[in-house]
Here is the input.
Amino acid sequence: MLENIITMATQAVNDLSHRLRRRSIEAPLWERLAFYLTLAVVGFVSVFPFYWMGVTSLVDETWLYQTTPQAIPALADLSLENYWTLFGSETVPFVQYFLNSLFIGTVSAALGLSFAIFGAYSFARLEYPGRWIFSRGVLVNYMFAGILLVIPIFQILVTLDLVNNRLGIIVTHFIFVIPLGLYLLGNYFRSVPREIEEAGLMDGYSRLEVIARITIPMSKPAIVATYMYAFLLSWNEYLYASVILRDQGLYTLPIGIEQLQYAFQNVWGDVMAASVVTTIPVLFIFLYLQRYLVEGLSFGNMD
Amino acid sequence: MAQLDTHTDDSEPNIDGSSGYRISLESVSKHFDDTVAVNDISLEVQPGELLVFLGPSGCGKTTTLRMIAGLETVTEGTISIGTEDVTQTLPQDRDVSMVFQSYALYPHKTVRGNLAFPLGKMDIDDETKEQKIEEVAEMLEITDLLEKNPNQLSGGQRQRVAVGRTIIREPRVFLLDEPLSNLDAKLRVQTRAQLHSLQRRLGTTTVYVTHDQEEALSIADRVVIMNEGEIKQVGTPEEVYTNPNDEFVATFLGDPAINLIDVSDGGLFDGEVPMEEIGIDVPTETARIGVRPEDAIIDGVSTSEKKFTDPVTFELDVIEPLGHTYEATLERAGRLFSIQSEDVTGEPGESVQVRFDTDQILAFDATGRRI
Here is the structure.
């Protein structure tokens, strides 16, 4: 038994030193150190805020204001108190915020995607005057800071009587989803071999049927990725939601979280609990999305 | 597979009795912006015929095929299939099918799904569909591949699935765009023969595009030689090879290429070899003569009963054995001359005497036209 462990350990050490030696051929030690150090700094900077968010949501406010701050709370300090406050609150309809965000994100992403599919297809495949202007103009949209358009869009919504209305915010998010969708899907559709669509035509299907039965199924990774990006865009959007929505019952999560500080006294724990709850769907979406992104990028390996 | 003809209304009888559709191109042109891809071509494809478009890349052969398919619009002229003018008909309504160079299989469908796809637009029940898929799969020997995805198949298997997808619908016309160019040499020859016999069996009018002359000559009922958007010659493989209209056709066909020798003052090689003296009888306006490598022999080897000219002196450069035959490269006055023969004599560097088969000498005028 002991002998086995020793043999295995020796084996492991040998393997490791072997691998280290092999790697040292690839890059010198200082280069690797610099690489890992940079990685560690970047990793810390990006991950620590999330960690602190999680910790803050699980401790009592007094722990945060200790004279000697601590990085890691003792197990005894942890509690789900903040979450109970959040979901049990009479004054803050947090669940309602969550549902509002979910509804607005789902609908605006779906709406945007269904328009973007046809627009992007036309950019990729059809020839018509002004196509170049349209397909490039889409990108110009991203050169404006979002705040520049607040007033024009608000005025349009006033005219349409859509201020303080879910439809108003859906339309606004839809406006921002469209260029993203056109850009992502346009590129992807271009990578679908023209001959495969032509084969569909030769097999007796109309252009629309070919799009529905060949182009869209073949572009599933890009379509899923675009939908999720679009959903996240709406889910995280603060500026327009804060301008357009007035009634508390209509609030989405980003403005809802902001409202928490007026509602509670020991505000940090609650705000962070709300942030955690808001982040979880994003996290899941990204984990899922990643698979499709890889699939989307490695597309075209038919031969 | 039985030929289920669903188009009896305007079908025409074929040479061997099976039904096929005539394809007519009348003064068809295709312009892409400023470039002329196809320039005023007129052509009849006979019912049941296998017609091959052959030409160098960019000669307009694929564009012509795509116009028949409806994938390119026609700038001028009309195209009809059977008695129907299809010039303005959408590709999906032409009832023709096509094998693409890349095969263009649907990557998200299995082989069965690929074969079933064209049947989706036909008014037949599921049982008939299944039966057709089984029949075609059996005919092309892809039955055990039916549940696989296209990316799991080899090049040859993909090619067969593409052919299967083309024939399963029993369309009026088959169009094949370089269907064998992605296969390796051995498989290409084998598949070529299979395609040929399949086309014979089905008796469906077929237009086939290739840049490979061997493929074209071996498979075609008739060959259309194209260059720079124009038809240079139409004829049986034998006709276009032995009886070319012009220098382009003569040089394009044949490997090694035909030997062209300039004629001046009634003699070859700057008049050094008077044609009359060695027994070449060509019109006076001849600017060049062409001799195919297999129509010349090195003096000294046994001659058959063919009539040969008197010998012309060349210097022997290289002899390459090709297994069943030899290929010799000769030189005179800086011009190369190749000979393909079962028997060659001589050592590199030596002077040899060459005789041409008098019946096979082709004469061209200054514009390259055959005279």
Observations:
- Chain A has a mean pLDDT of 84.
